[in-house]
Write a sequence for this structure.
């Protein structure tokens, strides 16, 4: 990495497994004053009534990286499976959401049922796949000198949002207001509990 790249404005990324609280964290950051990179294609629904905050081009990050320069100084949501494909010629500050796997799986199952997919989900197999993926993701993140990571617990975000907002604000060090961030957390949306 060149000196110019190492001093470039970092891209803030909210990551984690699907259904791990990434949309909640994106809402907190938006409330705190960060500019969010989103296209509003995926709109709010019963599973995410506060919105998804997604950017469709993220799904092609392995082949389409033309949008990354515009992401510098902003926050973008990239699920953990795609994060590992992010090009390493940028600086990143990653807020990685961690949630108990039984809650993640229950939340996914509920979302599938609402969409009319009544195919039984093999939670044991999914848990094994997720655990293996997360171990690989944590190793990868630890090995990248241009990536700073803050791990945030989903349950703590819901139960102590101000403490979490203070951690996030200190990590990003960009003048965000933790109280405004914490105020947008809706505890009633923590519907799947382990």
């Amino acid at each position: 990495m060149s000196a110019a790249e190492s001093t470039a404005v970092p891209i803030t990324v909210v990551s984690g497994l699907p259904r791990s609280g990434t949309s909640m964290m994106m809402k907190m950051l938006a409330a705190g004053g960060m500019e969010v990179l989103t296209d509003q294609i995926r709109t709010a629904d019963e599973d995410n009534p506060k919105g998804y905050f997604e950017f469709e081009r993220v799904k092609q990050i392995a082949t389409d990286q033309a949008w990354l320069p515009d992401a510098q100084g902003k926050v973008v949501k990239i699920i953990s499976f795609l994060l590992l494909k992010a090009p390493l010629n940028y600086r990143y500050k990653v807020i990685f959401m961690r949630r108990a796997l039984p809650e993640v799986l229950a939340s996914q199952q509920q979302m599938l049922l609402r969409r009319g997919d009544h195919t039984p989900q093999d939670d044991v197999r999914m848990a094994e796949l997720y655990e293996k993926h997360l171990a690989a993701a944590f190793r990868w993140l630890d090995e990248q000198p241009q990536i700073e990571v803050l791990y945030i617990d989903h349950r703590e975000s819901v139960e102590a949002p101000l403490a979490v907002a203070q951690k996030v604000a200190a990590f990003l060090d960009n003048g965000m207001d933790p109280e405004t961030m914490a105020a947008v957390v809706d505890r009633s949306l923590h519907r799947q509990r382990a």
